[in-house]
Amino acid sequence: MTMRRNLASLIFTVGLGLMLVSLMQGSHTAFPVEVGQNINAAGFADHGAANLVTSVVLGYRGLDTLGELTILFVAATAAGMVLGHCPGGSTPPVRGGFILATAAELLFPFLILLGAYIIIHGHLSPGGGFQGGAVIAAAYYVPLLAGSGRLFSEDTGSLIESLAGVGFIAIGLLALWGGGEFLAPLYSHNGAPGALLSAGTLPLLYLAVGLKVGSELASLLARLGGIGMEVDDDA
Amino acid sequence: MTLLVLGAVAVMLIAALAALLLPDLLGALAAASVVSLALAVLFALLGAPDVALAEAVVGSGLSGVMFAMVLRRVGYQPADEEETGHDDAA
Q1: Which member of A28, A55, A62, A129 has the lowest number of beta carbons within 10 Å of its beta carbon?
Q2: How distant is the Cα of A138 from the closest Cα of chain B, in angstroms?
Q3: pTM (2 d.p.)
């Protein structure tokens, strides 16, 4: 069993290495890379976001971001469905000691603050909806790991998640209604460049992404962690 | 700079080998998290802070915790306390 697994890993590694070598040999002449330079030149003028990565993720490739959100949603749903109701985990949740529980509850608001900062400043500094949402989910998970009570309510989580998804699509439809393409950025040039209130609808889109990712991951982790499933185990 | 990059790559390679070869699944999981952590450092060194942030949070934080939860969910017991009927250790 271990032998077969190691053999499969070896074959995969060798194949990946061969692919990388062939890419490195062929790519310099075959594909002239001009997209990056064009975006560097035109990105700020197009969307007014100081962080060019946000300009690409939400401005030029908004539809791809919607696809990513859909994939994440389907993956979280499937994982929760397959693993959520399995009472196989015979070990009860381990309660961390007093120090661990207190530190986790102290850490919780600061992690929420960090996640919110990363989301809200996504159009100015590195970070954005996905990263900030993951930090918020981690914030909900630290107290659960330390065994200090249940902070996350799945009903509120699913409500926030649905509202954020609807908000993302509504902003896209607003652009469509205004005569542009679906998910085209609106009001890009109100506000000073680099100010918090700038880049039009991009911060709103990132807020929706962050809330959706955060509530999705937090509810998936709460479900996998077996919180609320102890009734099934004891029965 | 070059030394830092080489160090991060070396840590990644060693941790990846450990993740492949360790018989204990939880240990392999920790080693895989170390791979992600070194990769995040590498991204930050090479000037991609957005990707570094995502890799640090998702790769070395959430996915490790998620895999550990799944291991507990499917009834995996660490190798040194297998007194119950589970014999699904690799």
Answers
A1: A28
A2: 7
A3: 0.76
Look at B65 and A221 and tell me if their CB atoms are within 8 Å.
yes
**Every domain of chain B and the residues it spans:** 2-77
- Average pLDDT, integer, range A95-102: 79
Residue A192 has what DSSP assignment?
-
Q: Which residues contact A62 (CB under 8 A, 6 or more apart)?
A: A172, A182, A183, A184, A185, A205
Q: Exposed, middle or buried, A228 (CB in 10 Å: 0-12/13-18/19+)?
A: middle
Which residue among A90, A118, A225 sits closest to B69, beta carbon to beta carbon? Answer: A225
- Residue A220: closest CA among A76, A100, A88, A106: A76
Environment class of residue B26 by beta-carbon count within 10 Å: exposed (0-12), middle (13-18) or buried (19+)?
A: middle
Tokens matching residue A151: 């902070």
Q: How many Cα neighbours within 13 Å face the side chain of A101?
A: 10
Q: Does the beta-carbon distance from A134 to B65 stay under 8 Å?
A: no
Complex ipTM value: 0.76
Determine what percent of chain B is predicted with pLDDT higher than 90: 34
Distance CA A101, CA A103 (A): 6
